[in-house]
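ugh ok so i messed up the first submission bc i forgot one of the chains. this is the corrected input, ALL of the components this time, i swear. 822 residues overall. if the numbers dont match what u have on ur side tell me asap before i send this to the collaborators (the ones from the other lab, u know who)
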Amino acid sequence: MSDAITHEAHHHGPPTGAKRWLYSTNHKDIGTMYLIFALIMLFLGGAMAMVIRAELWMPGLQLVEPDFFNNLVTNHALIMVFAVVMPAGVGLANWMIPLMIGAPDMAMPRMNNMSFWLLPPAAILLVLSMIVPFFGGGQTVNTGWTLYPPLSIQSGMGMDFLIFTVHILGVSSIMGSINIITTIINMRAPGMNMMKMPIFVWSWFFTALLLIVIMPVFAGGVTMLLFDRHFGTSFFDAAGGGDPVLFQHIFWFFGHPEVYVLLLPSIGVLGMIIPTFSRKPLFGYKSLVYGMAVLYGLGLIVWAHHQYTIGMSIETTTYFMIGTILISIPVGLMIFNFIFTLWKGSITFETPMLFALAIILMFSFAGTTGVMLAVVPADLQYHDTYFVVAHFHYALIPGSLFGLYAAVFFWMPKWTGHMYNERLGKIFFWWTTIGFNLTFFPQHFSGLAGMPRRIVDYNMIFTEFNVMSSVGAFAFGLSHLLFLYIIIKTVKGGEKATTEVWDGSSIGYAGLEWTVPSPPPFHTFEKAPVVK
Amino acid sequence: MTSNEDSYYLPELSKWPVIAATALFITLLGVVLWVNGGSLWITGLGLVGMGYMFFGWFGQVIEESMSGKYNAQVDKTFRMGMAWFITSEVFFFFCFFGCLFYLRTISLGWLGGEGTMARSNMLWDDFAAAWPLISLPNGGGGLYAEAKEAMGPMGLPLANTIILLTSGVTLTWSHHGIKHGNRFQQVWGLVLTVLLGVIFLVCQAYEYYHAYQEMGLTLNSGIYGATFYMLTGFHGFHVAMGTLMLFVILVRLLKGHFSNEHHFAFEAVAWYWHFVDVVWLGLYLFVYWL
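and heres the new structure output, hopefully the right one now
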């Protein structure tokens, strides 16, 4: 009896002070920390993009040294991939998966906190890698996020900082993934079988499976880089029998599935939002799950389409070309799932839905340029031009970042208990979408005309396209101040959100997140609910 | 203290995760400074922190487990956690084995002039690809020094194979001892396993010493030396960790922590040990033998 009373006392409310966050074992608090971390890093990575676009405003050198420009390109990518999209995705997973499947918390709450608290050290190491060259740390890291040798072997100690950034992030991702998979398999409420789970949970299931496969391989790759740099091995040096191309294979064995790591959680978010605002159950739930499984499998075996120009044999490139084009089948399937969910639905256009619809359109566009790039003879023309830059920004900004924005608008009322301001949300949507398209659409043309990527200067004939891009980029960047304002305003107050939040949120749907109050109490589902 | 059969154990606030993250940060920061000419004391500081963390965190988990706070569902969580951790380790070694195969077949083939994409004729005309690679493409100048000979499969490596395989048997023998409550069998099985692990490590240390001193086989001997030390080195590191884990389990066994039904910690270490065993078989086959 006394045991029960202390139990109640412990779980009354959140602990107070810094310990609540530093020592947290609560999935909601840890999710919040992930999301805030991602938001801060979004502004850091975004600021780098602004400097890049300011430099490319005109041909010639404006603001920064060429080496530092390449360093900005490198760190912009690393930050956006590892410190923005991935943590934000894990933050969503932390918040929503236990609520959706009726679990009291993540399966391993302490390890969950460690996954998060590894991120600030990684961010510190990454920033140090930028700073040390100014204090006698040797050559700036100017390789791009791919860290290809031999250039990465010649870089100064900034590269060592990046190598260990990757190691820490790898540890964090692997622990996070183990936690998520275990939670999904082991922590579901009675009656919530796998094929009833909300599609967002499925998307994270496959994402976590991917991370467990690819992060150790990347860790091995950068370890070899470290040994080549400091301990005299010759993995990536032909003089000792090694091969720089080997690193490219390792990197892209990780790097290509990594794209799906960024993409899949957003696909999951779309699978939640589109049925809600179409007021119809998701069309083809099973096929969407199987589609993600196929995407998982194919994603692991098509990596070398990033390396068509390195001199692989015809047989090899042909294999990678066919494999890559096959990916359009599961992705196309997902797009059709969403379109048929919309079909004959009673659709309303709240901010999350606007984002979702824009994602379908813009991501399909990225898919189309992706098929172009997958074709070997065509890619030889497009390779390392701004066409590629345009392609992957269309894939990653709508495909993952906008998915995260949609998720924030969709779930923020559940997290905070307040509705966001719909008018401001819509303004943010249009502002950011127009800014994004203005930035990256012209880059298709400059790329096809031959403008190379990762170069600080360009031929005068590309000036107009670049001015357009820069204007768009500043608008796109500026729109995020509004995003920040909306978030702060919603956290502070606003119209009270109901338990269901959206009137279509529970149609044909077994998830449990809409059965808890908004905001949910500090501890939810301490007694497992039963799903019928 | 009653066990709460129907509720999942949720830990209170814990300081260990932050300590773990900080210690890892200090360790790796120290390594960066060390490889760039600094001293090792920062790394040492970090490692001390890691040790403190492992001691404290695992100690707490053991205490919670012993006081019956974990129900069957928590037990399943631990099992899955360990299984997926080992899966990620499999892919870590997959990376190095993949590199070995790539270098042996594709890189060396091309360097030796094989196929239409060969680049060797433009680099080193008279290089002939062979495995183990003793004569380097650039003749052993510059950064690299050629080894005198390659490591053969007989002798010490074969002995090590037998030692590790035997240790797998003794561990299983000990496990059966726990399941059937045979004290002699469980304790001595585990003691033998720990000893075999230590003997393996000593043998490997001697092998490295021999290779460096007498065979001229070093990290700088081109990709044969590089892959040899990378694969056997990371494996050896795992054996060292595994031996340490086995030792901890032995201490816990002597303290009577394991019942014939409830001994997951033992099983987790056993899984890990068998995984290390299997990796060694791959190593013996592809690094030493073929």
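quick check: Chain A is about 70% helix and 0% strand. that seems consistent at least. Residues 1-9 of chain A have pLDDT under 50 and may be disordered.
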